[in-house]
Specification:
- α1 packs across α11.
- It is built from 15 helices and 15 strands.
- It is an alpha+beta fold.
- The radius of gyration is 33 Å and the shape is rod-shaped.
- The strands form 4 sheets. Strands 5, 6, 7, 8, 11 and 12 form a 6-stranded antiparallel beta sheet that branches. The chain has a 4-stranded antiparallel beta sheet with strand order 3-4-2-14. A 3-stranded antiparallel beta sheet has the order 9-10-13.
- The longest helix is centred in the last third of the chain and has 33 residues.
- It folds into 3 domains: 197 residues, Multidrug efflux transporter AcrB transmembrane fold, CATH 1.20.1640.10; 75 residues, Alpha-Beta Plaits; 129 residues, 2-Layer Sandwich (Gyrase A, domain 2).
- β9 and β10 form a beta hairpin.
- Helix content is 54%, strand content 18%.
- The relative contact order is 0.12.
């Protein structure tokens, strides 16, 4: 073989081993390639930060970055794995959480502001109207979490949740108050501020624990807690609890949003998409069937029409798909239903370069040239057409990826990778096979006899 053939052989061998190494052990498919929500089921939410659009660019970017961080912490602490969170546009955040069946749970986890406040209770009643007469301009009325009681509280919070170190779900051991509660732990600065607040309160005053303008509990300030406050911040650092009629999921969610901190602004759910796992599995089955059928039909067609040259094209097609799946695995890309459509389109386009080259080789053969000369001339004279067609497609895929979102991105990724892989397979692997294995000697046309 010539030096150029050895270079092609080395490149093909290196990529082949790298692809096999990335894809081994080849099954199950969902462990090889990360599947999108439309294929494995889950929830997609687009949340908009209120007031962000009117902010200066730097402040808006900082706000969105903080929201992304808080969302990430909440999802990680709640145990939702493989979520994707990213800014979308100037004031929106896209969140994809696979394998979540309850969109309400996701909305509660992400959309809850989680502003925790401790406020002094002025009065309480079972009807909010009974408190309106006593309310002043600086006071507010909040309902209890069960809606059975209303509290008139001071407008200024004694303490807020930004001083929390931890929030854990606990099971009550008190037979008089069974059930779950949230145990709060303050950091040192928060505990010191809590001590100061307790010293200003009197015995039998009530302290409302307010979360997002809802009172979860309003315990009395006892003589024992007042005495403990005299001993300093360590004595009351982990003495506060939030009680209520919680289910385990509600208590867990509440603890998570308290630990991750309050959102810097309110957010609204602008878009919501939920896909069940059964529908996702059906998409995978149909998409795989379409891919296999198109792959098989093209393999048969190329052999029937181009005979021995078709074997080289089929080898390039197999290499093309191997490279695409390896690239998806290597880059950690997500395969979506439109991505499968991109793969099916890629299978059809993968032989396009070979078709152009083979037709040029056949034209050269008709002029009476020797087979090896026809192969060399076919690749040389069709190179510009192959590059023009494929590079323009790649440019389109890049534009779709940069300007599109969600399904459009998935289609653009697989289309772009497929076209790039098809160029390598056609220009390197096909040429290597035609020039070194004898397949190039079997061009399926005869030279046109020249007239004497």
């Amino acid at each position: 073989m010539k030096r150029s053939d050895w270079i092609r052989f080395g490149a093909v061998l290196a990529l082949l081993f790298a692809s096999v190494g990335l894809l081994y052990p080849f099954w199950p498919f969902q462990n090889l390639i990360k599947l999108g929500l439309d294929l494995q089921g889950g929830v997609r939410l687009v949340l908009q930060a209120e007031g962000a659009a009117e902010m200066e660019t730097e402040r808006r970017k900082d706000l969105v970055d903080r929201l992304v961080t808080i969302f990430s912490e909440r999802i990680d602490q709640y145990g939702m794995v493989n979520a994707e969170i990213r800014p979308l546009g100037v004031d929106r955040i896209e969140v994809k959480i696979p394998k979540v069946q309850d969109p309400e749970q996701a909305r509660q986890l992400l959309g809850r502001t989680a502003l925790l406040e401790f406020r002094k209770v002025i009065d309480a009643a079972t009807n909010a109207d009974d408190l309106l007469a006593r309310r002043t301009l600086l006071q507010e009325i909040f309902p209890s979490n069960d809606g059975k009681e209303f509290f008139l509280v001071e407008g200024e919070a004694l303490l807020t949740g930004d001083v929390l170190d931890n929030a854990q779900v606990r099971l009550s051991q008190d037979p008089r108050n069974p059930g779950l509660f949230i145990a709060l732990t303050f950091n040192r600065a928060g505990a010191e501020r809590f001590v100061e607040a307790l010293r200003r309160l009197q015995v039998n005053d009530r302290l409302a624990i307010v979360l997002d303008n809802v009172v979860y509990s309003a315990p009395l300030v006892s003589a024992s807690i007042k005495q403990a406050a005299q001993g300093g911040w360590r004595a009351i650092q982990d003495s506060t609890t939030i009680t209520g009629r919680f289910t385990m999921e509600e208590a867990k969610l509440l603890a998570v949003v308290l630990r991750s901190g309050a959102l810097p602004t309110n957010v609204q759910v602008m878009e919501e998409q939920t896909v069940g796992p059964t529908l996702g599995a059906e998409y995978v089955r149909r998409g795989t069937l379409a891919l296999v059928l198109s792959f098989g039909l093209i393999l048969v067609y190329m052999v029937l029409y181009y005979r021995w040259l078709g074997l080289a094209a089929n080898a390039a097609l197999v290499m093309n798909l191997l490279l695409v799946f390896a690239a998806l695995r290597g880059f950690g890309a997500t395969l979506t239903l439109p991505g499968i459509a991109g793969l099916v389109l890629t299978v059809g386009m993968a032989v396009d370069a070979n078709v152009i080259i083979f037709e040029r080789i056949k034209e050269e053969r008709r002029t009476g040239k020797a087979p090896r000369a026809c192969v060399a001339a076919g690749f040389a004279k069709s190179l510009s057409a192959v590059l023009d067609a494929n590079i323009t497609t790649i440019i389109t895929a890049v534009i779709l990826f940069l300007l599109g979102s969600g399904p459009v991105e998935g289609f653009a990724i697989t289309l772009g990778l497929g076209v790039a892989a098809s160029m390598f397979a056609a220009l390197v692997l096909s040429r290597l096979l035609l020039e070194t294995t004898g397949l190039g000697e079997r061009i399926p046309v005869r030279p046109v006899p020249t007239q004497a």
